[in-house]
Design brief:
With about 160 residues, the chain is of the alpha+beta class. Helices cover about 55% and strands about 15% of the residues. It has a 3-stranded antiparallel beta sheet, covered by helices on one side. α4 packs across α5. The protein is flat, with a radius of gyration of 18 Å.
Length: about 160
Amino acid sequence: MAKTRAAVVNASTLTDLAVDIDLGGHLRLGKGEEGSGGRAKASIVSDALEAVIGAVYVDGGLESARDFVLAQLGDRIDEAAGQPGARDYKTLLQESAAGDGLDSPEYDVSQTGPHHNRLFRAVVRIGGEVCGTGEGSTIKQAQQRAARVAYQARTGEDGALDV
């Protein structure tokens, strides 16, 4: 259950949903955030979605909040419950490498861009050999994307899971 909750209740999932429903387009932002792309900033839109869920709870009670969450996240909850931990490519890659008697994956992360709009790039190596690269707005996201590339290259998966 904890893996299912973690797979659904995280900034990445909430950001994806907030973008899907264009929540950022309905936010009132200060000039600084408006000018720096705040409407698409993961931390802002995921926090805003949490606030919306809280507002639904305060206004309509637990049942209304439950209905809203299930309507918006039901498919993601079902997917996560069916394959707990399946979206964690870092773990899958580590297990795959260990199963083949290889060293644990190592990640090198670099960053570019201004502090309020960083882009992280991760490179994953196994035994010193580059196996995958990935980019994201957080270190975790970049590492997961790099691990996904490496895991899919090792296993031949088609990439049906999202990171």
